[in-house]
# Entry
Amino acid sequence: MIKLRLKRFGKKREASYRIVAMNSDARRDGRPLEELGFYNPRTDETRLDVPGIVRRLQQGAQPTKTVKHILEKANVFEQLNAQA
# Structure
């Protein structure tokens, strides 16, 4: 199963994350199928590839709880429903 989840990078105690599409059994920092965005919890900065995320969700990818919350804040699910 393909999941949309966070991949950690950055220095110790200064983590930031990439939103990636990965197989659910792959390790957290392994090679992703596709990078779809960026999230920095320290500054609450978010950059998303919305068309790519919508395409992956239409293909059946499941977001993790944290990624789902980030996508809800960015109103990505409204765009998904508008295209359906």
In short: The CA atoms of residues 53 and 71 lie 9 Å apart.
